[in-house]
Amino acid sequence: MISYAPFYRTLKARGMTEYQLIYRHGFSSYILHRMKHGETITLKTLDTLCFILGCGVSDVIEYVPDP
Questions:
Q1: Which of 20, 32, 62, 67 is the most buried (most CB within 10 A)?
Q2: Do residues 11 and 50 make contact, with C-beta atoms less than 8 angstroms apart?
């Protein structure tokens, strides 16, 4: 299973809010909704998040094995 927990930690560490992602960077609120509910995102979206946040992939997602 893919977890987006690192994304929220990175967002907080960068002092950025979801609101800023949406309105300053034009990021889709629908994609944030999908992430909150553990749904999939595209590699392009992952690339965009890494660019906006200035971070690596591991700062946005992590693999968590299913029990």
A1: 32
A2: no
Round to whole Å and give the CA distance between 2 and 19.
23
Verdict on whether the full-model pTM lies above 0.85: yes
Cβ-Cβ contacts under 8 Å for 40 (sequence gap 6 or more)? 2, 34
pLDDT digits (tens, 9 = 90+) for 1-59: 899 999 999 999 999 999 999 999 999 999 999 999 999 999 999 999 999 999 999 99
d(CA 65, CA 50): 23
Whole-number pLDDT of residue 19? 96
